[in-house]
Amino acid sequence: MKRQPDLLWILVILFGLGVVTTGYAQSLWANKTDAPIEIAQQPQPFKR
């Protein structure tokens, strides 16, 4: 009689893989230096 893995363990493994994958993707995104960076400047009020 084979015992099927609990649904909880499957969800835990999927969640862990998601966390690892997200962390890896964010580290790749942060290390990318050739990505265009948008800098939005606020219009400065005219001062005398």
| Straight-line distance between termini | 86 Å
Q: How many helix segments?
A: 1
Q: Write down how many β-strands occur, each being a DSSP E stretch of 2 or more residues.
A: 0
Shape, please? Answer: elongated
Average pLDDT, rounded to a whole number, is 80
Low-confidence stretches: none
For the biggest sheet, the summary is: none
SS-based class? mainly alpha
List the secondary-structure elements in sequence, H or E.
H
Radius of gyration: 23 Å
Into which percentage range does the β-strand content fall?
under 5%
Oligomer: single chain
Helix content: 40-55%
Could you please describe the fold and organization of this structure?
It is built from 1 helix and no strands. The model has no long low-confidence stretch (mean pLDDT about 80). With about 50 residues, it is mainly alpha-helical.
Throw out a few tags for this protein.
48 residues, mainly alpha
Please render the helix and strand layout as text.
Layout: H1 7-31
Task: Quickly describe the structure.
This protein is an all-alpha fold and 48 residues long. It contains one helix and no strands.
